[in-house]
Amino acid sequence: MSTAGIVQYVIVRSDLAKTxxxxxxxxxxxxxxxxxxxxYRDDTHVKEYTADLDNMHKCVLEVKSESExxxxxAKLTENSVQHKLWIEQPENYPTCLAVKPYPKDDVKNYFKxxxxxx
Length: 118
Prior knowledge:
Blueprint (H helix, E strand, L loop, with lengths): L5 E8 L8 H18 L4 H7 L7 E6 L2 H13 L4 E6 L4 E7 L2 E2 H4 L7 E2 L2
Parallel strand pairs: 1-2
Antiparallel strand pairs: 1-4, 1-5, 2-6, 3-4
């Protein structure tokens, strides 16, 4: 089975990089990815994506603020794009989101204006 054409998008708040340690920010993305993969573990694309672990494709992008992350999550929800908005607890602080794996052509337009996380 091939994962060709299937991608998982991860969007991280870049404003947090100014005050958070790099490891803490990476942990947030890891939490979101793990959660979305668990929630949608029975999905056909998730199964295909994880059937070839050495060839998974992720795209890690950035938004500049909590409000941008919230707006993106709302847009994805409105368009039935399955994702997990990670909210750090106990602070109740939205930090990132991960989209379940999808064929790239199905979801790329939601992310085309975002830049790679730096």
